[in-house]
Each structure stands twice: as structure tokens, then as C-alpha cells.
Amino acid sequence: MVFSTIDYIAQPKIFIGKRTFIIGTLLKFHSKSSMIYMVSILCGSFGSTISIFVLHFMFRFFALERRGRLYYFKGKYLAWWFIFPFFPGCFWGYITYLFLQPNDLTSSIVLDIISPLNLDDYSYISATYFLPSGELNLSQFLTMFILMNLMLITILTVAYFAIGSYRLINRILKDGESEYSRKLQKQLFLALVCQAIIPSILMYIPVGSLCILPFFDITIPNLSTIVTATYALYPAFDPLPLIIIVDSYRNVVRRSVFRIRPMCTGIQGRKVQPVPDIIS
């Protein structure tokens, strides 16, 4: 919700070239400083999103483990799980704002990339890996190195809990539980695989490519458009595996749809009786 709101206000554009990527927004009704804040918050929302992704797989693993650890997702502990994703998001946005702001060393490169657009009409953050002199831009390189390692940590954490969940599901399937339980676990496993693939395709690969490829001076046509579109699509696609694959979720959706259709049909086909005139 935060990302969608700020994305609507800022309407950021992504530019890539000369070992640099830029996230800029056209100045309309806001100052340059306020728009830099908004772009930084957009970047911070990505940090929060991948943290939520980790919590999702952690919860799934604890549920399959059946050792009572779901206790820590209830009661007084529950609020902390909702608050936790804001910390990596704030850190991500803060160092983006602090180290990727416009500066005199990189402004000439940015100007060349976005030309013939007027740089004064844009507020932006940028990661310029090499200065015009050819030297490594150490501060921005280290900033991106930290952010990429944070993303790598979430990938490895998700992989750990995903593999652990896979092993637990296999163990449950071999323990001779009821047919219903075995069928449910197979469906949950398939949904788990899909929910690992979706963010990889829609988030990690596009954003990782955007951040890493410019360092090697590799440009992919329309990559900026792909990154913007896939990140916006992720919240809509994420719950679909559970809704489509797991019977209990699918049946609830189906019943809801068929409950609405007769209501609509009944309203459309109902004849309206005239109201008698009781006023003499």
C-alpha cells in the first residue's frame, strides 16, 4: 500500500547507462528534497517486502515442524512480527537517501544519460559505479554492495526455510498419515514451490539485474520498464498459488463467486411491484 501510494505520487522513471542506474521523478508540485525522500521510501519498501517474504517462509516452516514455535506468532509476540519488516525497510531507505543523492561528481554522467531531458526538471537518486575519471566511486559502490548483500541474506534465509519445509513435507508423506493430510501436504508443497518461483521472477531477478548489470556495463533493453512492472505485479500474483492449488482456499473462492452470481441474477430478474398509493 505504501509503495503503491508513493509510486502513484512520484511516478518514478528508471534510466540505465554508463555503468549507472538512475531512479528519477519529474518535479511537478513538490520540491527536489521531498521527491528524493519519496524515491528513498520506494527503495525502502522493497527492503520491507523481501523481509516479509522471509517471515512467510519462516512461519510455514514452524507450522510444518510442529514443535510449538507458532506460539511466538500469537498474542504479545504477534505485533513484533508486523513491526519487524519496517527495520530493514528503514535501513534500506536511509542509506539510499544518505549515499545515493545527487552530487557534483556524478551529475555530469547523469546528465548525459537522461539527455535530452532537462536535469533541473528531475529529482533522482543514482548509483554511479565509476566516476568520469574512470576511478571506482567507492561510497556508492559500497552502498550497493551492502544492499545486495542484504538481498542475498534474504535469499539464503528463504532457501534455508524452503528446503527445510520440503524435507518436513516429505517426512509427513512417508509417515502414513490420513489420505486427506497427505493430499493437503502435497498441495501445500506445490504452492510453496510456486511461491518461491514468483518472487524470484518478479522481484529478485529484475531488481538484482538493475543493480548489478550496470557495474559490468551491461545494458538490457527495456529493463527499467520490466523492473517497474514486475515489482508492481508481485502483490497480486503472490497469493494465487494458494488460491488455485489448495482445495480449501479454492473451494472458498468458488463458493463466494457462485454465491454472488445468483444474487446478481436474482436482482436483475426480479420484477418490481408497484407501490400502492395510500394517500387519498
From TrEMBL:
It comes from the Eukaryota. One of its GO terms (molecular function) is G protein-coupled olfactory receptor activity. Keywords: Membrane, Transmembrane, Transmembrane helix. GO terms for cellular component: plasma membrane. It holds the Pfam family 7TM_GPCR_Str. InterPro entries: 7TM_GPCR_serpentine_rcpt_Str. Signal peptide: none annotated. The chain crosses the membrane at residues 35-57, 78-100, 141-169, 189-216, 228-249. The keyword GTP-binding does not apply. This is Seven TM Receptor. It comes from Caenorhabditis angaria.
